[in-house]
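Hey, can you fold this one?
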Amino acid sequence: MYLKTDQSSLGGSTSTFLKVAVESPEDWKYNIFHNAHYGIFCLREGKLELISKHFEMPKFRKCKCNSFEVAQNKVTEWIAQFN
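Sure. Predicted structure:
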């Protein structure tokens, strides 16, 4: 499993992006993240939203998260649905 976090402060508010993939980077076709079974999540103002995913990955409903740890647990549970 692969998990990477990035932050952006555009527009006056801070957003945290979680990029997660089922496969490790060595297994990605042509070493491209979007060729893996992936999901990109955005955590902003206490709301977690799936903004991009591989077509074979399950759906995810937008939800409220009090902290980064809660968001990380929800993302881990989501990716475990694929296995």
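Residues 68-80 form the longest helix (13 residues). Let me know if you want another pass with a different chain boundary.
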